Amino acid sequence: MTIWNPWHGCKKISPGCANCYVYRRDESVGKDAGIVAKTGDYNLPVRKNRQGGYKLTAGDGIVYTCMTSDFFLDEADDWRMECWDMIRERKDLSFYIITKRIDRAAACLPPDWGDGWEHVTICSTCENQDRTDYRLPILLRLPLKHREVISEPMLGEIRMEQYLATGQIEHVTCGGESGPNARPCDFHWIQEVRRECIRCGVPFTFKQTGALFLKDGKTYHIERRDQMEQARKSGYSYYPGAGLAEKISYRLPEKSDLWEHLGRSAFRSRFRLTAKDREYIRDKGWDTIRRHAEDFVAKRLAPEAPDHDGKQTPMKGHPVFLAQHATGCCCRTCLEKWHHIPAGKILNSAEQEYIVSVLMEWIKRQI
């Protein structure tokens, strides 16, 4: 990994900027991070050694660009085109540009940009729902070869599935805020974006917990040195087919607690077997109903990323259809919320048997 900061300094423009680490670090050494100036590394990509070769090589990894500023900052308009010239020259490198100013990008692209450069990735930040709904449509309209999204610091629950479903976003990263004035990050927010990524087949990285992490009603104060490691150990990053979710530890609810929890839900409690359903069960027999339940679980819940998860339910009008909704077993999202079984993992035989037992117990309770 290489960091290329052609200029330093920035202007705060949205809620995610409030506790900017660049401002905090510069203030600690008596500098004003609001002053934008070129750095000594301005020409880093094309700098050469004594032998006449480039100092930076492809082996140095991704070139993260403008990490102490913003590449599309208007104060840098006079310098940016020369940076594009350097990026154009170094097609053997991969440049990664994170920006909060995606709305300026179209006017700042080089004239020969076309539909994008293969060795450049543009990543838009979106710290809350408001910035998500403003920035991501712009990101999707831009002529880019590679688009990514980062929600860090994540300041609230974010829904971005409508943008992920376009297939144009290659990766999503989420993380909490660090620093002495860090705002809280709720694990529920991380889980929700992760589930959306799984449904859309988009790789997801849980980068860091942040300093103030909320989980299961508890608040955790996490030291800076532990924030990335705690996120990594959680297993909640997702890469299709990689099996990372197998590492997630969880505990199935006690059945008594589950029934009590479901009983407090007005939505779950409204499902009831009708006289016609009971007659169907008597005609078919319990063994047939159980096979139907097993078939539903194996085909619609067990895969890592079931097709149309939560949007298409088989056997409508069937007792198992009612049972799956009444017990929170209707999709992988509900399975995680009600039964703690992580989304993104292939259900093993024990997990499948557990779900079938819940469905069958609910049906028998209705007879």
TrEMBL record:
InterPro entries: DUF4186, DUF5131. It holds the Pfam family DUF5131. It comes from the Bacteria. This is Protein gp37. It comes from [Clostridium] aminophilum.
